[in-house]
Amino acid sequence: MNRRPLPIGIEFYKDMINKPYYYVDKTLLIKELQEKGGKVNVFTRPRRFGKTLTLQMLRTFFEQEIGRDGKVADNSRYFEGMKITEAGEAYTALMGRYPVISLSLKSAKQPSFAMAYACLRETIAKEFHRHSYLLRSEGIAKADKKKFEELMGRSAEQEDYATSLAFLSACLGAYHGEKVIILIDEYDVPLENSHFRGFYDEMIDFIRSLFESALKTNECLEFAVVTGCLRISKESIFTGLNNLKVISILDENFAEYFGFTQAEVKAMLDYYGIGAREEEVRRWYDGYLFGDTEVYNPWSVIYYVSDIIEHNTEFPKPYWLNTSSNSIVRELIDHADDTVKTEVENLIAGGTVEKPIHEEITYGEIHKNQDNLWNFLFFTGYLKAVSRRFKVNALYLTLEIPNEEIRYIYQSTIREWFDERKKDHDATPFLEGMRTGDCEKIEDFINGQLLGSISYYDSAENFFHGYLFGLLGGIGGYRINSNREHGNGRPDLVLEPHHPRMPAMIIEIKCAKKFGQMEAKCDEALAQIEEQNYAAKLLDEGYQNIYKYGFCFCKKICMVKFVRNHSDGPVHGLR
User: Fold this and answer.
1) Which of 406, 45, 456 is nearest to 226 (CA)?
2) pLDDT in tens, 411-438
3) Secondary structure letter of residue 138 according to DSSP
4) Residue 313 in 3-state DSSP?
5) Which alpha helices (H) appear in 424-564, and where do they start and end?
6) Can you give the pTM of this predicted structure?
7) Directed axis angle between helix 113-130 and helix 189-197, to 10°?
8) Which domains does the chain have, with CATH numbers?
């Protein structure tokens, strides 16, 4: 059976239909925009939830597109068999009716305002070039044509670019005899980037001017659709814009048009013959709630299905992990106090936190209080609401991590943060303790690191195994073996010195669920070293001085026991 290819990385609607790729039909958004939409509709959704493709679909449907030959393009074939064609003449009559301005701001991620502004100027200039047929019109004044050419040629002043969308609207309205639809994708990307790069005030001044002229005082505007991850405060960008309608992930309206619903995912899995994996897909990529509608991450679902049917993997992967810097999670972790650390640990363990939600915030307010960071995490898809209540005129949401993919992102971010913190600590006391069998010195160093960390690794021996392996990498004069065969088994770590007079080391790691079990677990680790005869290979190679360590971890506490195997016999270390 020949199946349609999956749309990996496809953002243009025409490309989606021309191939044709597998397309999850979202065209009824057109109908709902006409019935429920406002003059300016701001959709806030997490990244990679189909915002760009959806705006491209709207552009293809509504635009009276002028080709290079000056003729009006017929785009009706792109909607044959789509749900919107069944909605009735009232909606299909709108196809190809309006001039459209389509702009994406997602490429404005430069390290300085000058570079970011130049990128935005380039984006605006390209949209002018797309409408360069206006220069052939007798209905456009000579002075306006000159200004149009300057904007298209990237030579206009900054203040002209700040009002350029309003100017282009007037030109298009004069030519087509219809008001203009404006589509702006990823409007908050320049703001997020400028916040983290340090030029937020300059950027917000430019974006505010651009939006006000295009969306507030624009007599030629039919309606606008603006997308982004966050709802940025009206006072910062949409000042005085009374015709604004924000549709956030808290709203039920339009909930099914960004992301995949349960029924859409099931249909896709069945189409590609992997319906038996439905539960696995649900655990990893479901869990988002837009209003009361259950939504899957479409980016991850598409990549997962592609990898499975191409036999690239047998297991789910965190496909969303590398789609951005995950800087919001890192901000939370970097600024976490003891309370926040405990809350993050509880979330990763499957628990919940309750936080007040403020929809209208700015990037400039991100560090005003810790609640703002929780808000950013919620609206950008790193948390989901499981219940809500009003308390003292404020909305409080009970939040949890939506799925295994996002849990992995928290874990990997914490792991990177923890690895960086390790580098800031002088491990000399730990290494000296290992060389001398000083269990107290070893414990003090490890406990000091773990108590200041955010943990997700309770009872995870593999984490502590990697942690000790990393610390011991700084011990000179040794080669480290991990899980290599020694005696009758595989000890966790073995350190073989380059010189036979130096002590060799054998380390066995255990985890306990309760603090009272730790000493017994240390004894169990030491007994395992003896019973499995882990020292045999070292003795055979001529090492006579062998240190045996039993490590036990419980939550953020470490206990160490030590036995030295010397040519004169075993010596038990004191704790």
Assistant:
1) 45
2) 888 877 777 776 767 888 999 999 999 9
3) T
4) coil
5) 428-436, 439-451, 461-472, 518-531, 536-540
6) 0.82
7) 160
8) 37-58+96-255 (3.40.50), 259-319 (no CATH), 323-408 (1.10.10), 425-572 (3.40.1350)
